[in-house]
C-alpha cells in the first residue's frame, strides 16, 4: 500500500500548526504509538484495537513475534481539521522513511473498519512472505471484519462496505486468482474482487487450510505453476471444486465467537504531547512528500526557536541525510542523541552517515569496525531494527566475515520477508560462502519481487554467479554539497554558534583552495597522549604495530567522531580506529576517529 499525499505543502503546514495548537495525548504499546487530540480516549482505543488486531494476526498465522519495518504511528482525530474554513482530509496512510502514519477520523462512518484494513495490510507487508493480490486483500478484509466485545471476539463477519456479488457478477475463481492489479478493474469488478477474496480467506481459515494456501502461493510464485496446477497440488482440487466449496461455506453461519486475545490495557499509560512535538509529528506527514523541501525549510525555522527539542532534530537528520546533505545531517544526529538517546534510528543514521549516506553499498574497508558500534547501539535499543541488521550484514560481508554476515542477513530477511533487496544481499552472502545453488534461487526470487532496481542487480549477479569478483576500491571521502533549499549552517542547531559559523563559512567561500587529493589511509592503535592547544587544534600520539604515529587534528570541535559525542583531550590508553591523510613519515592529518573499546 502506497502513501497517499492529499494536500499541498502550504495547506499541510497550516494544518500542522492548527492541529498542533490543540492538546495531544499519546499511548505507547509493544507495536505502535497512538496519538489523539482533545483527550486520551482515542489514543487508548487505538492502542487497544491495534494490539488486539495484531494478536489475531499472530493467532491466525501462528506467529510469535510481529514487528514493523518502520515505527507505526496512529493519529486519532475527533473532527475533520479545517484551515481558513476549508475542511481537509488527512491521508489515511502515509509511509515515510521515518515511519508509517495512519489516520483515524472519528467523524467518518465506520472509521475503525478502514483503520483495521490498513493495519492488517501493513502487518502483512512487513511480516508475511510475498503473496498474490487476492490473498492480501482477503486477509485485510477478514481482519477488518473482526468484532471485539469485551472478552469475546467475533470472526468471519463481512466488513462494513463489502457485499457479496450476485451470481451473474461472480468472478470465476480461476480468474480471481490470476488478477494481478485490482486497481485496473472497474468499480463493480473491484468490489466483487474484494468480497470474493474475503470469502476465499474465510473458507481457508475456517477449514484450517492456510498452510495449503502457502503451498499454492509457493508453487505459483516460485515454481511457475499455473493456478490450476498449483490448486491440484496444494488442495487436490481444481478451481471449479474449490469455488464450489467456497460458495457453499457462505451458506453456513456467518460468524463464530471465541475468546478475544488478552491485552493488558491497564498497563497503557497516556502522556501529554508537547506543542512542539505535536507540530513536528504533523509536519512529518509532508516532509517526504512531493513538496517536502518547503516543509524542510519550515522545520529549520522551527528548530531555531526550539533548540532543545529532540524530535525536530531527528526529523531534520532524516531529511538532510536523504537529501545527501551529510554535513547538516550529522549535526542534527549528534544533537538529537545529546538531547535524548532513546531512538535507535539516530544510531543507524550515524552509521549511514559514516558510509557517505548510502544504505545499500559499502564505501570503505573495515566497514564493520567503523560502523558496527552505532549499528549495534541501534540493535540494543531495538533488536528487530532490520535496517540496522541489514547494514551490519553487508558491512560484515564487505569485510569478508561471511559467517557473521549470513547470521545478520538471514535474520533481516526473516523479519522482512517481502524485501527483495534483503534477499538479494542474502544471495550475495551464500555466493561468498560457496553455496551457489542457494544463491541462484534467492537471486531469482529477489529479481521477481517487482523492484526494478533490484531486478536489474539480480540479473547482473546471475550472469556473474561463481565468477571471481574484483576487489572493491578503498574508501575515498566525498564532500556533500549543501542543500539548496533549506540553507542551514553547519552548526545551525547550536544556538551559540550560528552567527560565528555562518561568518566563517562565508569567508571560506571567498577563498578557493585546491582539493586535497591525498589518499585516505587507515590505522588501528592505542592513544599514548593527546596534546591540545588553546587554538582548538591537537596532536594525537598513537601507538600502532610497535610504532608511534603523530596525527594532527586541525579543529577539535569539528573533528569527525564515530561512537563518541566529542573529542576528549583527556584520552589516554584508548583504543581507536583512525582514518588519516599522510603528511610525512609516521605523520598524518585526521579524517575521522572511532573509539573501539
- What is the CATH architecture annotation of the domain at 274-463? Alpha Horseshoe
**Could you give the distance between the termini?**
44 Å
Order of strands, main sheet, comes to 6-7-3-2-1-11
Uncertain stretches: 1-9, 472-502, 509-513
Q: Strand content of the residues, in percent?
A: 15-25%
Largest sheet: 6 strands, mixed
Arithmetic mean of pLDDT: 86
Give the CATH H-level superfamily of the domain at 274-463.
Tetratricopeptide repeat domain
Number of helices: 21
Shape: globular
Q: For the CA atoms, what is the radius of gyration?
A: 27 Å
Strand count: 17
What helical percentage do the residues reach? Answer: 40-55%
> What fold name stands as the CATH topology of the domain at 274-463?
Serine Threonine Protein Phosphatase 5, Tetratricopeptide repeat
Structural class: alpha+beta
CATH class of the domain at 274-463: Mainly Alpha
Amino acid at each position: 500500500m502506497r502513501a497517499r499525499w492529499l494536500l499541498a505543502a502550504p495547506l499541510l503546514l497550516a494544518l500542522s500548526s492548527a492541529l498542533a495548537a490543540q492538546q495531544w495525548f499519546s499511548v505507547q504499546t509493544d507495536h505502535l504509538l497512538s496519538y489523539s487530540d482533545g483527550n486520551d480516549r482515542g489514543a487508548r482505543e487505538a492502542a487497544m484495537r491495534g494490539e488486539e488486531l495484531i494478536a489475531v494476526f499472530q493467532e491466525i498465522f501462528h506467529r510469535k513475534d510481529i514487528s514493523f519495518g518502520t515505527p507505526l504511528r496512529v493519529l486519532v482525530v475527533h473532527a475533520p481539521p479545517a484551515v481558513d474554513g476549508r475542511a481537509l482530509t488527512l491521508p489515511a496512510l502515509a509511509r515515510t522513511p521515518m515511519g508509517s502514519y495512519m489516520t483515524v477520523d472519528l467523524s467518518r462512518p465506520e472509521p475503525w473498519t478502514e483503520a483495521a484494513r490498513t493495519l492488517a495490510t501493513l502487518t502483512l507487508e512487513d511480516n508475511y512472505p510475498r503473496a498474490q493480490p487476492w490473498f492480501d486483500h482477503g486477509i485485510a478484509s477478514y481482519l477488518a471484519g473482526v468484532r471485539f466485545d469485551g472478552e469475546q471476539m467475533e470472526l468471519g463477519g463481512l466488513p462494513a462496505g463489502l457485499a457479496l456479488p450476485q451470481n451473474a457478477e461472480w468472478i470465476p475463481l480461476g480468474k480471481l486468482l490470476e488478477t494481478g492489479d485490482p486497481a485496473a478493474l472497474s468499480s463493480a469488478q473491484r468490489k466483487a474482487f474484494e468480497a470474493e477474496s474475503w470469502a476465499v480467506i474465510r473458507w481457508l481459515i475456517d477449514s484450517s487450510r492456510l498452510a495449503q494456501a502457502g503451498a499454492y502461493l509457493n508453487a505459483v510464485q516460485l515454481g511457475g505453476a499455473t493456478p490450476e496446477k498449483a490448486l491440484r497440488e496444494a488442495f487436490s482440487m481444481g478451481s471449479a471444486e474449490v469455488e464450489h466449496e467456497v460458495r457453499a461455506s457462505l451458506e453456513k453461519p456467518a460468524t463464530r465467537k471465541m475468546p478475544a486475545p488478552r491485552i493488558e490495557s491497564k498497563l497503557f499509560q497516556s502522556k501529554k504531547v508537547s506543542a512542539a512535538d505535536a507540530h513536528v509529528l504533523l509536519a512529518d506527514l509532508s516532509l517526504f512528500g512531493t513538496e517536502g523541501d518547503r516543509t524542510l525549510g519550515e522545520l529549520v525555522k522551527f528548530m531555531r526557536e526550539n533548540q532543545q527539542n529532540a524530535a525536530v532534530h531527528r526529523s531534520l537528520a532524516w531529511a538532510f541525510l536523504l537529501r545527501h546533505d551529510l554535513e547538516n545531517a550529522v549535526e542534527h544526529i549528534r544533537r538529537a542523541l545529546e538531547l535524548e538517546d532513546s531512538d535507535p534510528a539516530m544510531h543507524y543514521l550515524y552509521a549511514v552517515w559514516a558510509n557517505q549516506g548510502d544504505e545499500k553499498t559499502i564505501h570503505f574497508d573495515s566497514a564493520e569496525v567503523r560502523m558496527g558500534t552505532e549499528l549495534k547501539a541501534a540493535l540494543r535499543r531495538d533488536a528487530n531494527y532490520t535496517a540496522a541488521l541489514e547494514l551490519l550484514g553487508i558491512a560484515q560481508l564487505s569485510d569478508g566475515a561471511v559467517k557473521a554476515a549470513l547470521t545478520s542477513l538471514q535474520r533481516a530477511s526473516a523479519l522482512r520477508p517481502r524485501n527483495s533487496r534483503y534477499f538479494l544481499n542474502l544471495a550475495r552472502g551464500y555466493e561468498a560462502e560457496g553455496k551457489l545453488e542457494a544463491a541462484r534461487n534467492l537471486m531469482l526470487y529477489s529479481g521477481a519481487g517487482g523492484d526494478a532496481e533490484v531486478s536489474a542487480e539480480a540479473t547482473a549477479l546471475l550472469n556473474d554467479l561463481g565468477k571471481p569478483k574484483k576487489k572493491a576500491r578503498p574508501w575515498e571521502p566525498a564532500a556533500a554539497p549543501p542543500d539548496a533549499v533549506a540553507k542551514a549552517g553547519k552548526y545551525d542547531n547550536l544556538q551559540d554558534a550560528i552567527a560565528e559559523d555562518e561568518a566563517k563559512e562565508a569567508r571560506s567561500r571567498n577563498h578557493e583552495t585546491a582539493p586535497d587529493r591525498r589518499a585516505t589511509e587507515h590505522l588501528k592503535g592505542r592513544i599514548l597522549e593527546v596534546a591540545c592547544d588553546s587554538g582548538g587544534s591537537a596532536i594525537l600520539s598513537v601507538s600502532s604495530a610497535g610504532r608511534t604515529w603523530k596525527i594532527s587534528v586541525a579543529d577539535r570541535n569539528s573533528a569527525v567522531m564515530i561512537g563518541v559525542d566529542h573529542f576528549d583531550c583527556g584520552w589516554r590508553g584508548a583504543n581507536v580506529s583512525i582514518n588519516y591523510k599522510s603528511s610525512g613519515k609516521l605523520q598524518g592529518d585526521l579524517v575521522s576517529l572511532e573509539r573501539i573499546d
